[in-house]
């Protein structure tokens, strides 16, 4: 198995997030209880339960390109007819959707390109909710800026994120900074997985484990400067 996916196999989620973030997005976007929802880049489906509970008469289409993630979603929601899971790129489903939920995933398409793509696939009044890595302060440490721009060259603060959303032809319904609990929901299980895989790991896997550990340490040391912002946006 690919070392990256060996690390991520069995983890509950593929990005920081929690139930409170889903609840907030529904309220902020005024998403209907019978919403048709696209869980774009769903990973193992960490947010599906919260999406269904917020839309008790709604439906969720969960898509991801990694087949084992979709297998996990299908196994968990086998008896739930309101959930459909497909091995599919997030930019393929046509909708219309009342909510596109993209937890830590929209950057694969690019914020502006992704929002423009989803616009014709939204139902009237529909919204896109996505989380994006961002600066939480106006003057992050220069060394941190250098480190982050190697992986996220377009990283900016809340104002820059809002400008990108507006450039794509959307209005911002609201922005929310994900709290530490949302990050720990992602990183705490990953730390346990790293520790479990280290004994007997080959060089390729060790490199992946080390990189993941460094990522966790980077956030923990700089959580006051760096985080995820959850945005809810509606076509203008």
TrEMBL record:
Residues 38-128 form the Methyltransferase type domain. Pfam families: Methyltransf_12 (PF08242). GO terms for molecular function: methyltransferase activity. The keyword Transferase applies. This is Ubiquinone/menaquinone biosynthesis methyltransferase. Keywords: Methyltransferase, Transferase, Ubiquinone. The keyword Ubl conjugation does not apply. It comes from Sinisalibacter aestuarii. GO terms for biological process: methylation. Coiled coil: none annotated.
């Amino acid at each position: 198995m690919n070392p990256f996916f060996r690390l991520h196999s069995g983890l509950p989620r593929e990005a920081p997030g929690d139930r409170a973030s889903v609840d907030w997005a529904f309220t902020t976007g005024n998403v209907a209880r019978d919403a048709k929802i696209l869980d774009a880049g769903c990973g193992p489906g960490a947010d599906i339960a919260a999406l269904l509970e917020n839309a008790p008469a709604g439906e969720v289409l969960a898509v991801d390109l990694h087949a084992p993630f979709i297998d996990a979603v299908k196994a968990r929601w086998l008896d739930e007819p309101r959930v459909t899971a497909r091995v599919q790129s997030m930019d393929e489903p046509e909708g219309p959707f009342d909510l596109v939920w993209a937890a830590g995933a929209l950057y694969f398409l690019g914020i502006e390109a992704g929002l423009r793509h989803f616009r014709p696939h939204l139902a009237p009044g529909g919204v896109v909710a996505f989380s994006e890595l961002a600066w939480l302060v106006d003057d992050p440490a220069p060394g941190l800026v250098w480190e982050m721009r190697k992986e996220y060259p377009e990283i900016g603060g809340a104002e820059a994120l809002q400008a990108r959303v507006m450039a794509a032809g959307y209005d911002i319904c609201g922005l929310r900074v994900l709290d530490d609990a949302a990050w720990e929901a992602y990183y705490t299980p990953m730390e346990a997985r790293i520790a479990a895989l280290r004994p007997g790991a080959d060089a390729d896997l060790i490199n992946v484990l080390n990189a993941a550990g460094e990522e966790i340490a980077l956030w923990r040391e700089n959580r006051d400067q760096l985080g995820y912002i959850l945005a809810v946006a509606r076509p203008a």
